[in-house]
Amino acid sequence: xKPAPAPAVKALVFDVFGTVVDWRGSLIREGKLxxxxxxxxxxxxAFADAWRAGYxxxxxxxxSGELPWTKIDVLHRMILDTLLEKFALxxxxxxxxxxxxxxxxxxxxxxxxKAGLAQLKRRHVIATLSNGNVALLVNMAKHAGLPWDxxxxxxxxxxxxxxxxxxxxxxxxxxxxxxELMLVAAHKDDLHAARACGLKTAYVxxxxxxxxxxxxxxxxxxxxxxxxxxxxxxxxxLAR
Length: 240
Prior knowledge:
Radius of gyration: 18 Å
CATH architecture of the largest domain: 3-Layer(aba) Sandwich
Strand order of the largest sheet: 4-1-5-6-7
Number of strands: 7
Structural class: alpha/beta
Shape: globular
CATH class of the largest domain: Alpha Beta
Distance between the termini: 15 Å
């Protein structure tokens, strides 16, 4: 059967945590470095998982109005402060805690990310569309060498994904219609929310996002326009 033609899009926006960068592996590495320096005995994999587990509930407090608009750096620090007690991370200075909180600014990309983004950039505008705040995303791009044309963040519209304002705001800021914009993500809920706003969607498999012990649903879904193994595969499909 002849493959269906790729949807015509003018710009690509990318979920970042888990889709572009390996947050879990990066946080574990940062934790181990800190542990060696401070002689801390911590299960850093469990620590990384617990930090990430606090992400959605923290954003939900903002989305519900319980908290005023609060950027991710601040939410990450709120979660971290509880984890310092839970995991008995004692003896850290404020500078050391702040440096640990900014580990999210230093996340490492998946192996295909930089080369794949460079390929995709040849034909399309590429931008972030992340719940991460602008400073976090800019610092991450500098640290990891990510070649974005533009940094878009939930911070710009003061709405966290999956609020429609985030997806529609990205289209407006890039000067394209929703159907001319494609969200690239490894998370199906993000893609479904974008599709409901009229965006095109590309699902990229990141089966190792939560580590080897977690089996994710990476099955194909007819609702999504494209399914790709990685960014290089996505670039090939979009070049058809």
